[in-house]
Design a protein that fits this description.
Strand order of the largest sheet: 1-2
Radius of gyration: 21 Å
Helix content: 25-40%
Mean pLDDT: 90
Number of strands: 8
Distance between the termini: 18 Å
Length: about 200
């Protein structure tokens, strides 16, 4: 996804910064006009900072059981199979375990699989997940977890991916990109039916 910051929302709060996230065409192995523009900026010292502001933010979607959690949830869902939006920092150890040639079975195997432990700490004021890793000890699903598999639908991850922008939507994305660069406010009359700021 590409982050487009605006100085406000036209006709509403025009002084409160807002952000619109739009899909990057590279998600579908196509050329992304915004990244094509931004790549050139990253080679120019005076434009590099602005280029990083508009560079794609990569995340990954997974689903899995929550076996144990320290999170306090006011309304804990009945389905322990959750959908996760994962940053590259967490994705890398997950991927390493899935591709590890020294593991006989896939870590996702229901009988001989492994648990993955997410450990959140802080480093220089930012969330740090570098201590997260697979627990290299077989952990079969228990009877309750097996029942969950037949009681609840497993998430179809494809349903949570953004829709591929058509030609009109790609033009709107480029127009919003140019407006963001020029320091304009988000215009809901022009773009509201296509892409909106979070919470709009």
């Amino acid at each position: 996804m590409i982050r487009l910051p605006f100085n406000g929302v036209r006709g509403q709060n025009e002084s409160k910064p807002s952000v619109v996230y739009v899909p990057c065409m590279e998600m579908w192995n196509e050329t992304c006009p915004i990244l094509a523009e931004v790549r050139a900026w990253l080679k120019e010292p005076q434009l590099e900072e602005m280029g990083r502001k508009y560079w794609k933010k990569r995340t990954y979607l997974f689903h899995g059981f929550v076996c144990q959690s320290d999170l306090i949830e006011p309304e804990k869902p009945a389905n322990p199979i959750r959908r996760f939006v994962v940053s590259p920092q967490l994705f890398n150890p997950i991927r390493a375990g899935l591709l590890n040639p020294n593991i006989d079975e896939l870590p996702t195997d229901y009988v001989k699989g492994l648990d993955f432990k997410i450990v959140k700490t802080h480093l220089n004021g930012f969330a740090d997940y570098s201590k997260s890793d697979w627990i290299y000890r077989e952990s079969a699903l228990n009877e309750k977890e097996k029942q969950v598999l037949t009681s609840f639908e497993i998430h179809n991850i494809d349903r949570h991916l953004p829709k591929k922008p058509n030609e009109q939507e790609q033009r709107v994305i480029w127009e919003m990109f140019e407006a963001s660069i020029d320091g304009e406010t988000y215009n809901p009359e022009k773009w509201g039916e296509f892409y909106k700021p979070r919470g709009f």
